[in-house]
Amino acid sequence: MAQVRSDLGASFGNAVMIRCYEMRALIGGRSMAPPQPEIVITEQEILADLRYPSEAGPASVQAGQEGPEEDGAVSATVRWSDIDANGHMHNTVYSGLATDARLTFFAERGLTLQRLLDLSIGPVILAERLTYRSESRLGDELMVGFALAALSRDASRGRVESRIAKRGGQTAAVVAVEAGWLSLADRTLVAPPEEVAKILWSAPRTSGFEVLDSAQQR
Fold first, then answer.
1. At the N or C end, where does the chain have fewer CB atoms within 10 A?
2. What 3 state SS string does 53-116 have?
3. What residues pair up with 73 in beta bridges, in sequence order?
4. Based on the structure, what is the number of domains in the chain?
5. Quick one: average pLDDT of 180-204?
6. Which of 199, 196, 126, 195 is nearest to 159 (CA)?
7. Residue 163 C-alpha from the chain's centroid
8. What is the pLDDT of residues 24-71, one digit of tens each?
9. How far is 21 from 116, CA to CA, in rounded Å?
10. Which CATH number is 113's domain given?
11. Is the CB of residue 146 less than 8 Å from the CB of residue 102?
């Protein structure tokens, strides 16, 4: 299991971000949203959910064989600096952990920050949504998943989900992002080179994974 705990949330993975947070706060004793059933899963189920059988992409970027079980997942422990006035982990930490999982997945496959700079591209967030399920408190050990929910045929855009769960198996939050690739030269959204596309098509996928139209076809 990759052990990752850093401030990568402030790195290039969050260069462009529009946050659409879903907060289930109570106002006047009434909930802003219908109550959601609590989701309880085991650690094994978390990892299994990240390894759904891959659907083939374009012939030139077929998904390769699956890697180790822990691919697409990192772990972290809630620190004192992560806690807000309510005594639970504040929202920006969830976003940062999801970014850690995404960047770790790429880096483990050779797609480091330096390699992205060499290719003159960078991942950008177009929209982000956080759905909270249960509190994360000081000292809680968390598992952060990574799985593709959608990807365009040219890999120019997609949706990624990171499920953040406590060691006991209880889901704390789900971070879902819509992302694309930015040309560092032209500052426009582009399709990544085949090297990057192959890595994306080999990534873990959700059960509802779908293939999107390419950005140029929208």
1. C
2. CCCCCCHHHCCCCCCCCCCCEEEEECCHHHECCCCCECHHHHHHHHHHHHHHHHHCCCCCHHHH
3. 145
4. 1
5. 96
6. 126
7. 8
8. 333 344 444 444 444 444 444 434 443 333 333 333 333 333 332 334
9. 29
10. 3.10.129.10
11. yes
If you search the block for the tokens 């950005």, which residue do you land on? 215
Determine, yes or no, domain membership for 130. yes
pLDDT in tens, 107-144: 999 999 999 999 999 999 999 999 999 999 999 999 99
- Cα–Cα distance, 142 to 140 (Å, whole number): 6
Q: How far is residue 91's CA from residue 104's CA, in Å, rounded to a whole number? A: 20
Domain limits at 167?
39-53+71-217
Strands (E), the chain: 2-3, 26-27, 30-31, 73-77, 121-132, 141-145, 147-152, 157-166, 171-183, 205-212
